[in-house]
Task: inverse folding
């Protein structure tokens, strides 16, 4: 299994050695300040009193890397002023911050356990309406706990398979798709035992259905962010390609100053992807010492 | 229900009603009241709207989450806990406070200006009302 994984990504990544050794290393502990309850300035002050040194993330002023792994035992975690979250997982709301300022009707399509829901609510300052949906009732319990703890009052939770979601028109949709999670290997200590190309292909089939459905739920002029925390082109570029071949979608270029972004894969196993796909981005773990991520901004 | 609750927050804690102008209150079973957005969606039917703000029965008990979000606007019946009592409170224990600053009933507990949640005061004893799932062994405070 590991050989297959290695072979696959050696040809896609710029520096295979750096990539694989990064996957073997521990990921820095990061968190986000919840602006419904606190500010980065306040948190900096508090943590310095605790003797915890923080590094404010250059591309997102609400995000911090902590020298102390037990952020979960701080007073500010208890009160919901900080939310423990992987850095790259903060990206989908960050790339639509402008759009979110005016948005009144937002769908977080695969929302549990709510990292992005609570971040959206903070950016929107509890105004407008966020529909946080997830297929899994079990995972909704964690979503509910996190949403309440964050003080996210502008959230309603729905429990649907997105593919059967009733007709609606959302201005913004976050589609943080279920994926093979290869990019979280560092956090999860080792390649998941579930890993196989068959598993990837099954997920890809689902992701293609989800992205078409999500696009149909967007209002004209609306914005969707498609993201995964995986490297597999089947779950990333190929899913966007499928959308572009089946719907009048456009991809907007993504710029994030101070974060090293990488190009998408142009072709995979004989399929050359639609040229619009180039506007999406990949984030490789060894470039910024983060998890792995894939991100696209879709316009209707 | 809404007016009753807002009047209570104002009278007991001095929390002004206009803080809630952009929100709506939703009643649910067992006297539960949720604080949520002004307009929700009807299709699909939500499994929950906003978050639990209070339980209204013989008395009105504000939720920990409500207090953590709006407690900073309170002007009365607030108890500032010291470090030791804050650790106890986060652990789910009751605390004993000798002070004339509050009357019997629900009180807001805070630490260095940050509201933690609520307790129920009877004399000097503050009964811990923190939900079990929120208990935490604090190391940094
Ligand atoms: C990557 S996780 C989402 C993480 C979440 N956005 C966060 O930031 O905390 C993917 C989620 O999609 C949900 N899911 C899987 N299939 C789904 C479907 N068909 N419709 C809706 N949700 C689905 C899973 O239950 C899972 O919670």
Result:
């Amino acid at each position: 299994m590991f050989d297959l994984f290695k072979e696959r990504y050696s040809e896609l990544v710029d520096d295979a050695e750096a990539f694989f050794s990064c996957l073997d290393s521990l990921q820095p502990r990061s968190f986000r300040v919840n602006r419904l309850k606190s500010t980065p300035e306040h948190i900096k002050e508090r943590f310095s009193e605790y003797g915890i040194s923080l590094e404010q993330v250059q591309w997102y002023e609400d995000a911090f890397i902590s020298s102390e792994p037990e952020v979960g035992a701080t007073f500010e975690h208890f009160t919901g002023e900080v939310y423990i979250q992987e850095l790259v997982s903060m990206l989908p709301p960050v790339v639509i911050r402008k759009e979110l300022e005016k948005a009144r009707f937002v769908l977080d399509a695969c929302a549990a356990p709510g990292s992005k829901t609570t971040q959206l609510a903070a950016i929107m300052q509890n105004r407008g309406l966020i529909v946080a949906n997830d297929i899994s009732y079990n995972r909704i319990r964690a979503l509910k706990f996190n949403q309440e703890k964050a003080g996210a009052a502008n959230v309603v939770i729905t429990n649907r398979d997105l593919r059967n979601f009733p007709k609606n028109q959302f201005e913004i949709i976050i589609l943080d798709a279920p994926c093979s999670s290869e990019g979280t290997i560092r956090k999860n200590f080792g390649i998941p035992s579930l890993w196989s190309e068959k598993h990837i292909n099954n997920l890809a089939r689902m992701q293609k259905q989800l992205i078409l459905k999500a696009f149909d739920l967007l209002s004209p002029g609306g914005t969707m962010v498609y993201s995964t925390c995986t490297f597999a082109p089947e779950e990333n570029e190929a899913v966007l390609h499928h959308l572009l071949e089946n719907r009048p979608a456009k991809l907007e270029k993504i710029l994030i100053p101070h974060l090293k972004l990488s190009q998408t894969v142009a072709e995979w196993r004989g399929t050359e992807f639609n040229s619009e796909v180039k506007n999406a981005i990949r984030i490789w773990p060894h470039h910024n010492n983060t998890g792995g991520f894939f991100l696209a901004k879709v316009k209707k | 229900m809404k007016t009753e609750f807002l009047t209570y927050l104002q009278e007991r804690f001095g929390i002004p009603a206009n803080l809630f102008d952009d929100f709506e209150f939703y009643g649910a079973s067992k006297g539960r009241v949720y604080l949520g957005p002004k307009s929700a969606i009807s299709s699909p039917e939500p499994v929950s709207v906003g978050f639990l703000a209070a339980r209204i029965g013989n008395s009105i008990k504000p939720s920990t989450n409500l207090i953590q979000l709006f407690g900073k606007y309170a002007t009365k019946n607030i108890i500032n806990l010291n470090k030791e009592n804050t650790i106890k409170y986060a652990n789910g224990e009751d605390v004993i406070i000798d002070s004339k600053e509050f009357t019997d009933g629900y009180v807001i507990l805070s630490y260095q200006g940050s509201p933690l949640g609520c307790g129920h005061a009877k004399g000097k004893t503050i009964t811990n009302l923190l939900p079990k799932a929120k208990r935490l062994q604090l190391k940094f405070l």
